[in-house]
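User: I'm writing a tutorial on reading structure tokens. Could you give me a worked example: one chain, its sequence, then its tokens, then a sentence or two explaining what the tokens reveal?
Assistant: Sure. Here is the example chain.
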Amino acid sequence: MISIQRSQSLRQQVYQALKQIILKGELASGERVIETKLAQQLQVSRTPIREAIGQLKREQLIVSKDNGGFKVATLSARDAAQLYDCRIALEQLSVQGACEQITSKQLKQLEKYVLLAEKSQSSKSNPSKLLEIDYRFHHLIAESSSNQWLLAMLEQVFDKMALLRVQTTKHNPQVLEIRLEHREVYQAIALGDSELAQATIKLHLMSAKARVVKELGIIQNTAK
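And here are its predicted structure tokens:
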């Protein structure tokens, strides 16, 4: 259970808690969002739950049901392709900035995420752990670019990607084949080779796009 810290803004805490419940797959894509159940789970009144649902609806993580109420958004293969196209454009800019601005401390931390991914994949860890490592790796690259506007835009995309990856890894954990790809991106940034870094991140994300779009197509055809 996610606990609410009363010392902080209750509204923001409830929003963050509900967002994490969705992005970690505790509420599955397409699952009904029930205010009373969430209020009981988080031990708050329905008012902040309702406000959080409204905010997450604006962020398109929650959508309205045809017959009333709300449910967790379900992303299609077309959604996935478009999200990856956005990431490819933004993250090429991200690695370009990282090659110029990354600090030695950030570079060491980036290498740690590469090693963690390699260790996790070799030991067949829970897919959610790999999702977290993948997020931290890409987020750190964006941070190290020192472009706050780029980071803000990528964070919006990352939220949708988290929902997308939760959908697909439940059916096929092998969708997250990041071990070799992350190392190649890291090495290009460590060399400060902007052109290589951009080419490598593009190849990495295009490969991920192909795997995820294919998996979603299989899921959608199975559901018919």
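What the tokens reveal: The CA atoms of residues 30 and 72 lie 5 Å apart. Residues 77-223 form a domain with the Four Helix Bundle (Hemerythrin (Met), subunit A) fold (CATH 1.20.120.530).
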